[in-house]
Write a structure and sequence with these properties.
Helix content is 54%, strand content 10%. It is mostly helical and 157 residues long. The chain has a domain at 55-155: Ribosomal Protein S7, CATH 1.10.455.10. It has a two-stranded antiparallel sheet with strand order 1-2.
């Protein structure tokens, strides 16, 4: 942990939707500093939602809400034993975890039915919007683990 608090950097809005969440998604997808390629993938995905007569920002927000964890477990060492202590997730970290889980699930999808990353991202966002998919399952696993370790909640100080 840092001795002093660190300054929280402001994320600039993206050019098309003027939304900070879309800009964060682009930054998470970015690989080797290729931000324009990541932006092309994200905008292609969001344009496919427009073609289906859906508001892309609302779809993204609902998908993030379906994936975002409320509680996670953190290991805490007490008296020579490690306990998994459930903790509530702050809103900024909740957004980061949900976007990361969505991107990781999209990257893990097979290439058989989807050809580009934009297709994979579209499929994963669609599944998360409907409440299914790998990212939603990861959220459910985190919630189950937190619920199972609720006994150790008194160790959170």
């Amino acid at each position: 942990m840092p001795r002093r608090g660190y300054k929280i950097r402001k994320v600039e809005f993206d050019e098309i939707y003027a939304n900070a969440t879309v800009a964060k998604l682009i930054n998470l997808i970015m690989f080797d500093g290729k931000k324009t390629i990541a932006a092309e993938h994200v905008y292609a995905t969001l344009n496919r939602f427009k073609e289906k007569k859906l508001n892309p920002i609302e779809v993204l927000e609902k998908a993030i809400d379906n994936v975002s964890p409320r509680m996670v477990v953190r290991p805490r060492r007490i008296g020579g034993a490690s306990y998994m202590v459930p903790k509530e997730v702050p809103p900024r970290h909740r957004l980061f975890l949900s976007l990361k889980w969505l991107v990781d699930a999209a990257r893990a999808r097979s290439n058989k039915e989807n050809h580009s990353f934009a297709d994979k991202l579209f499929a994963e966002l669609t599944d998360a919007y409907e409440g299914k998919g790998a990212a939603v399952e990861k959220n459910q696993q985190a919630q189950k683990l937190a619920e199972a370790n609720k006994v150790f909640a008194h160790f959170s100080w």
